[in-house]
Amino acid sequence: MSKYVVGVSGGIGSGKTTVTNAFAKLDVDIIDADVIARDVVAQGTEGLRAIVEKFGPDILDQGQCLNRRALRQIIFSDEQAKQWLNQLLHPLIRQETLRQTISATSSYCMLSVPLLVENGSYKNVDRVLIVDVPEASQLARSMARDDADEALIRSIMASQASRQQRLEVADDVIDNSGDESALTVQISRLHHKYLGYAAQV
């Protein structure tokens, strides 16, 4: 088990995955709640069966997998549906996250959680790293990446912690508004810092 856990978060479109992929190349174990959230609703899982039972077979795509875009449209326009989905998925995600954290073998591991601030799980890690970009960049990147309309991305941003709220709980901040070389320098500096902290545990 890793002796030191760094929680990583940032708003939609901030580049969390780019950052955690870079740490993974430095042989840091990454526990990604987004990946786990997809795994717990994969074909054949209890999670997917419950979702189909709730929303009907139209929630599946042609390959009988979860149609994420359709589900996202539902939960961002229906607060009760969103609460139901959270009550279903959060315990499943927590259980698998804990299992992977215990199994991590790198000197420190990273727990990447989109809602690290919102659900209070930042209190359960040794250090909090926030990936930060201006809100205008979040909007532009997310619309381009997801081929989504502005209203949907703005509603997702509004449902997340504000940029200020994330920065208030941060122990470390990566500014991801620059180029790749600027990002690499920041990641290298933090990697050595975290190795030092882990060695002291």
TrEMBL record:
<keyword id="KW-0067">ATP-binding</keyword>
<comment type="pathway">
    <text>Cofactor biosynthesis; coenzyme A biosynthesis; CoA from (R)-pantothenate: step 5/5.</text>
</comment>
<dbReference type="GO" id="GO:0015937">
    <property type="term" value="P:coenzyme A biosynthetic process"/>
</dbReference>
<feature type="binding site">
    <location>
        <begin position="13"/>
        <end position="18"/>
    </location>
    <ligand>
        <name>ATP</name>
    </ligand>
</feature>
<comment type="similarity">
    <text>Belongs to the CoaE family.</text>
</comment>
<keyword id="KW-0547">Nucleotide-binding</keyword>
<comment type="function">
    <text>Catalyzes the phosphorylation of the 3'-hydroxyl group of dephosphocoenzyme A to form coenzyme A.</text>
</comment>
<keyword id="KW-0173">Coenzyme A biosynthesis</keyword>
<keyword id="KW-0418">Kinase</keyword>
<dbReference type="GO" id="GO:0005737">
    <property type="term" value="C:cytoplasm"/>
</dbReference>
<dbReference type="Pfam" id="PF01121">
    <property type="entry name" value="CoaE"/>
</dbReference>
<dbReference type="InterPro" id="IPR027417">
    <property type="entry name" value="P-loop_NTPase"/>
</dbReference>
<dbReference type="InterPro" id="IPR001977">
    <property type="entry name" value="Depp_CoAkinase"/>
</dbReference>
<keyword id="KW-0808">Transferase</keyword>
<dbReference type="GO" id="GO:0004140">
    <property type="term" value="F:dephospho-CoA kinase activity"/>
</dbReference>
<protein>
    <recommendedName>
        <fullName>Dephospho-CoA kinase</fullName>
        <ecNumber>2.7.1.24</ecNumber>
    </recommendedName>
</protein>
<keyword id="KW-0963">Cytoplasm</keyword>
<dbReference type="GO" id="GO:0005524">
    <property type="term" value="F:ATP binding"/>
</dbReference>
